[in-house]
Amino acid sequence: MARYVVDVMPKREILDPQGKAVLGALPRLGFDRVLDVRQGKRFELEVDGEPTDQTLADVRKMAETLLSNPVIEDYSVSVVELETQGSDQ
Amino acid sequence: MRVGVVTFPGSLDDEDARRAVRIVGHEAVALWHGDHDLQGVDAVILPGGFSYGDYLRCGAISRFAPVMTEVVAAAQQGLPVLGICNGFQILCESHLLPGALIRNDHRKFVCRDQRLRIENNRTPWTSSFDEGAEVTIVLKNGEGGYVADADTLDRLEGEGRVLARYLDVNPNGSLHDIAGITNERGNVVGLMPHPEHAVEALTGAGTDGLGFFTSLVGATA
C-alpha cells in the first residue's frame, strides 16, 4: 500500500477569503508579524499496491478531475512510502 | 413545454423551481440525480441549494452525479439548461460554462433583493426580456463570486455572453459585476440570483423572475 498526498491551493491570482479571515484573526492572538495566509486543502489517499508510475498518473488524474478545480486551484502530488508492518512490540 | 428540475441530495430550491415552471404554464418534471434519465424533457433546470453538502467545492461532486452525464450530453446538443446559484456552480464544474464561483469577497452570506441588468436576451431563458432590462431578483449565496482568467472574461464580454450584470452594488465580488453568463451556443445559462423566488407578488420583491420561465415558450429544444 502507498499513501499519496495531494495538496491543493488557490491560485495566487485568485482571492482567498478564508486565508484573509485567518490572517485577520492572528493579530488578535498576538501574532502580529504574519504578512499573508493562504488556505488550501490536503488529501491523503491510501492506494492498494506498490507505488508505480501508473498509480501516480491515476492520482494526478484524480487531482485534476475531482480534487481540484484547475480554473481556480493548483495541485501537487507526492508519495509517502508506508512501512509494510507496524512496530514489533 | 416539459421542464425537468433535477433534485440532488442537498438541493433546496427544486420545489420552488418546479412551482415557477408551473405558474407560467409549463409542465414540471422531477428529475433525480441518481438516474441516467431526462424523461424526454424539453429543458432542464439545475436548482439552488447545497448539493452534496457543498463538500469539496460547490458543485464538484454533483458534476459526477449519474444524471449529469445526460445533462451534459443534451446541453451539447442544444437542450436549454438553466443553472441557478448552486446550479450555476455545477455548470461551471461541469465545464459547460467557463470560470468558477468562489466564496464572497466579504466572507458573509448575502441575501438581498438585487437589481440586475439583462444584457443578453438572445437565450431561451431570457428572450422575454428587453435587452438592457433592469429587474430585481432575490440573491442569496455564500459562494457567488464569479472568477475567470482575463482571456475568458474578454471572450465573454466580446461575444456578448454576459447574460446579466449586478447593478447598484456588487454583492459578492464577482469580476465585471457578472451575475450570469451563457455558453457559446446560448442554450446553457448560469445565474447566481434566484428567479424562481421572484414569481409571485405575495412573496418577495416582485415578479421579475417570471421572464426566465416564460422565455422558454419560443425556444426549440
UniProtKB/TrEMBL annotation, chain A:
Subcellular location: Cytoplasm
Keyword Cytoplasm set for record: yes
Molecular function terms from GO: ATP binding; phosphoribosylformylglycinamidine synthase activity
InterPro entries given in the database record: PurS, PurS-like_sf
Reaction equations catalysed: N(2)-formyl-N(1)-(5-phospho-beta-D-ribosyl)glycinamide + L-glutamine + ATP + H2O = 2-formamido-N(1)-(5-O-phospho-beta-D-ribosyl)acetamidine + L-glutamate + ADP + phosphate + H(+)
Coiled coil ranges: none
Keyword list, A-Z: ATP-binding, Cytoplasm, Ligase, Nucleotide-binding, Purine biosynthesis
GO BP terms, alphabetized: 'de novo' IMP biosynthetic process
Superkingdom of the source species: Bacteria
GO cellular component, one term: cytoplasm
EC number: 6.3.5.3
Recorded metabolic or biological pathway in which this protein acts: Purine metabolism; IMP biosynthesis via de novo pathway; 5-amino-1-(5-phospho-D-ribosyl)imidazole from N(2)-formyl-N(1)-(5-phospho-D-ribosyl)glycinamide: step 1/2
Self-association state and partner proteins as the record states: Part of the FGAM synthase complex composed of 1 PurL, 1 PurQ and 2 PurS subunits.
UniProt family annotation: Belongs to the PurS family.
Function: Part of the phosphoribosylformylglycinamidine synthase complex involved in the purines biosynthetic pathway. Catalyzes the ATP-dependent conversion of formylglycinamide ribonucleotide (FGAR) and glutamine to yield formylglycinamidine ribonucleotide (FGAM) and glutamate. The FGAM synthase complex is composed of three subunits. PurQ produces an ammonia molecule by converting glutamine to glutamate. PurL transfers the ammonia molecule to FGAR to form FGAM in an ATP-dependent manner.
The name this protein goes by in its record: Phosphoribosylformylglycinamidine synthase subunit PurS
Organism this protein belongs to: Nocardioides agariphilus
TrEMBL record, chain B:
Pathway field: Purine metabolism; IMP biosynthesis via de novo pathway; 5-amino-1-(5-phospho-D-ribosyl)imidazole from N(2)-formyl-N(1)-(5-phospho-D-ribosyl)glycinamide: step 1/2
List of catalytic residues: 85 (nucleophile), 194, 196
EC number of the protein: 6.3.5.3, 3.5.1.2
Alphabetic keyword roster: ATP-binding, Cytoplasm, Glutamine amidotransferase, Hydrolase, Ligase, Nucleotide-binding, Purine biosynthesis
InterPro entries attached to this UniProt entry: Class_I_gatase-like, PRibForGlyAmidine_synth_PurQ
Subcellular location as annotated: Cytoplasm
Main localization (coarse): cytoplasm
Catalysed transformations (reactions): N(2)-formyl-N(1)-(5-phospho-beta-D-ribosyl)glycinamide + L-glutamine + ATP + H2O = 2-formamido-N(1)-(5-O-phospho-beta-D-ribosyl)acetamidine + L-glutamate + ADP + phosphate + H(+); L-glutamine + H2O = L-glutamate + NH4(+)
Gene Ontology terms: biological process: 'de novo' IMP biosynthetic process
Keyword Lipid metabolism in annotation: no
Gene3D superfamilies for this protein: 3.40.50.880
Keyword field contains Disulfide bond: no
GO molecular function, one term: glutaminase activity
Domain of life: Bacteria
GO cellular component: cytoplasm
Role summary: Part of the phosphoribosylformylglycinamidine synthase complex involved in the purines biosynthetic pathway. Catalyzes the ATP-dependent conversion of formylglycinamide ribonucleotide (FGAR) and glutamine to yield formylglycinamidine ribonucleotide (FGAM) and glutamate. The FGAM synthase complex is composed of three subunits. PurQ produces an ammonia molecule by converting glutamine to glutamate. PurL transfers the ammonia molecule to FGAR to form FGAM in an ATP-dependent manner.
Subunit and interaction comment: Part of the FGAM synthase complex composed of 1 PurL, 1 PurQ and 2 PurS subunits.
Protein name, UniProt field: Phosphoribosylformylglycinamidine synthase subunit PurQ
Organism from which the protein derives: Nocardioides agariphilus
